[in-house]
TrEMBL record:
<feature type="domain" description="Beta-ketoacyl synthase-like N-terminal">
    <location>
        <begin position="46"/>
        <end position="218"/>
    </location>
</feature>
<dbReference type="Pfam" id="PF00109">
    <property type="entry name" value="ketoacyl-synt"/>
</dbReference>
<dbReference type="InterPro" id="IPR016039">
    <property type="entry name" value="Thiolase-like"/>
</dbReference>
<dbReference type="InterPro" id="IPR014030">
    <property type="entry name" value="Ketoacyl_synth_N"/>
</dbReference>
<keyword id="KW-0808">Transferase</keyword>
<dbReference type="InterPro" id="IPR000794">
    <property type="entry name" value="Beta-ketoacyl_synthase"/>
</dbReference>
<protein>
    <submittedName>
        <fullName>3-oxoacyl-ACP synthase</fullName>
    </submittedName>
</protein>
<dbReference type="GO" id="GO:0006633">
    <property type="term" value="P:fatty acid biosynthetic process"/>
</dbReference>
<dbReference type="GO" id="GO:0004315">
    <property type="term" value="F:3-oxoacyl-[acyl-carrier-protein] synthase activity"/>
</dbReference>
Amino acid sequence: MKNVYINSVGSVSAQKTTHATDFLTDIISYNETVIPAIDPVYKDFIPPAAARRMAKGIKMSIVASKLALEKAGLNNVDAIITGTGMGCLRDSEKFLSSIIDNDEAYLTPTPFIQSTHNTVGGQIALEIQCTGYNFTYVHGSNSFESALLDAKLQLELSEAQNILIGGVDEIGDYTILLNKTINHIKKEPVKSSEIINSQTKGAVFGEGANFFVVSNESNHASLARIEALELYNTLPIQSVAQRARQFLKANNLNTADVDALILGNNGDVEFDIYYDELASGDFKNAQQLVYKPWVGEFHTASAFGLVLAAIILKTQKAPREFQLNSIVSSHFKTILLYNQYRGENHSFTLLRQC
């Protein structure tokens, strides 16, 4: 089977990731309970008349996908695979609100049409005129990993050569209110640098779109090689370290071979203990990084983690603000990512230097 490479990334997030010059070098710190993504200049990518009718998730995805394609030197791809936890949430809220406000009569269908989860993949396909395989995964916080796994299998078996994959989620006012009510969002604002040690329930929520061109052919611009990926719907906390060891062993590695461990800590005192199992155990001598305090928690936030890992392997530099422990690796050849959300949908992703 062929190897799978990340040849480019495109990101719209709460950090300055749309600009190549500022990509993860000028880190923005927040003091909020919800972090919105920084809007790029959409008219540079989408005609204004069309952009006015698009949900934010769609606009972010089109920008991120075009950035990834541009960096890969491609106009089209063989397939588009998207992961999203909540789809175009704002249009969903708008449609449901109109049902109540209009007593289920005289409804405008546009918000419903644009609220479906596969709208993003369809709009990207229309933008680049891609008539190939187009699939959307909606698997909670494993949505992006499911898209990545699909692409990886197709590329390994030479069913495609270049695939555009991405993870996108947006935030909506009513959904934010609901998550605050059930303590999934922190009650009080927390500084980004203090989230990990906040010792309170809930996370700081966010949004974003992160897209990648993955291929079974590498080039001089390739960022990283995707070595392996493993998903679990449920995993007992006492089994996390064991599964990590088994995952590495299956790829002829051990914990000492990992140069950096990228974790999905979000500051939720009830569930960050899963990450502590790795950070304070087998990987205590590896450099550890976190990213959700700086971009927020959302179902496909792990796609930003993959962006971070790929950039680190390419540039051999890690943002010091994302540092969890005091250990700094002299080089980066192997990076392990681990993510879960509220004790479910666990994923291990292994990247190697090209």
